[in-house]
Amino acid sequence: MRLHRNLCFAVIDGLTSIFNEDEYADKVIQKLLKRDKRWGSRDRGFVAETTYDIVRWKRLYAEIAEVKEPFDRDNLWRMFAVWATLKGIKLPDWKYFEGTPTRKIKGKFDELSKSRVLRESIPDWIDDMGVAELGEVKWTKELAAQNKQADVILRTNTLKTTKEKLQNLLFDQNIETEFIKGYPSALKLTERANVFVTEAFKKGFFEVQDASSQMVAEMLDVKPGMKVVDTCAGAGGKTLHIASLMQNKGQIVAMDIYESKLKKLKIRARRNGVHNVDLKVLDSTKPIKKLYNKADRVLIDAPCSGLGVLRRNPDAKWKLEPEFIDRIRGVQQDVLQKYSKMVKPGGKLVYATCSVLPSENQNQVQAFLKTEAGTEFTFVKDKKVLAHESGFDGFYMALLERKA
Ligand SMILES: C[S@@+](CC[C@H](N)C(=O)[O-])C[C@H]1O[C@@H](n2cnc3c(N)ncnc32)[C@H](O)[C@@H]1O
């Protein structure tokens, strides 16, 4: 592979924003990719993947490059040189790479890789927490899986098409996909591609959604005509799935504390041809109290650490703080307490997170079941999805049923 100067500059600019200006990697990359209209899909892939790679391996690369935060541009070029050397890419004779000790880089990589926190590039405190919660063996495997690049998975919008038709449509545009056993609406891309520019996307035939995430609405067991509350709907990944399982019949109330997220959901719903969603910004407890004992199904897709989706958001490990995780555990129990009251007798509740930590998952559910609100419910089943076992995102989901 030959390195192109303008693409490498884009990567260094992106890393500056992510590491030094505390911006989110996905937003930075989205912006970077708009920089030059002449870039083809390979160029865009290079910018996105190289930036993500260096974010993912920040701690290891900084250690090998012998640089410390805050990184100046020279530091970032040194980390870039580590990335390129470890990938086996020949460094061009640009001034940024002068005197790069290629052999030493490889030797240091072998040496430092003996330590898990360096090999997997993870802050000590997250590593300690992972070992304490999952045990050393599982955590070690999970961390390695979370550092791999995630596949691109689509969820067919069955309101508009079928999985088979969508596969053919994409094939005609040179995008090859395969079915995934056990995931009824999923298509996996055999090679990365920018699916957002396709007609099929613009027409709302699919959404990009990981296979594990697709299991959540399935577990909720919705039927056409039901009243369903999606309490932490965000931009609506799961709301849209629920709507398609309900064949657009019945009512979904999609709630979130952020109006900006629900606005995105509105746009996506329109594209998806979804007509049965009412949006409610949670700025008081009124809309919740109004729905007490009314919903056939309630989904709590709770805010969480995101430690199951590091493959997609590698910068999260550098942005997370122990206090945030403590606070979010409090929110998780709080939303379980409050939102469970909307389930009607005989109705069902799914609690889900994209975390792999038991303290955000089964422990929350067990604690809830012991409280006054929880005694109304029976535990039906749960799924603990780990990336190293499933090949998809780390997720947790539990199904509870309100006693009749
Ligand atoms: C895991 S995300 C939801 C993802 C979304 N369900 C999807 O499938 O795309 C959690 C959401 O909970 C929202 N949230 C945080 N605290 C909340 C609260 N107390 N009540 C309702 N929503 C809350 C966040 O704004 C965020 O959008």
Short description:
This protein has 404 residues and is α/β, with parallel strands linked by helices. It contains 19 helices and eleven strands.
Task: Describe the protein's architecture and organization.
The chain has helices at 5-20, 25-32, 41-56, 58-65, 73-86, 102-112, 116-119, 124-134, 136-146, 163-172, 199-202, 211-220, 237-245, 259-272, 286-290, 316-319, 322-339, 362-369, 387-390, and strands at residues 153-156, 177-179, 186-189, 206-208, 227-230, 251-256, 277-281, 295-301, 343-353, 377-385, 395-402. By secondary structure, the protein is an alpha/beta fold. It folds into three domains: 5-118, Orthogonal Bundle (N-utilizing Substance Protein B Homolog, Chain A), CATH 1.10.940; 153-208, Sun protein, domain 3 (Alpha-Beta Plaits); 211-402, Vaccinia Virus protein VP39 (Rossmann fold). The strands form two sheets. The protein has a seven-stranded mixed β-sheet, with helices on both faces. Strands 2-3-1-4 form a four-stranded antiparallel β-sheet, covered by helices on one side. A hairpin with a 6-residue loop joins strand 2 (177-179) and strand 3. Helix 8 packs across helix 9. The model has no long low-confidence stretch (mean pLDDT 97). The structure holds S-adenosylmethionine (SAM). S-adenosylmethionine (SAM) binds at residues 231-238, 255-258, 261, 282, 301, 303, 331, 335.
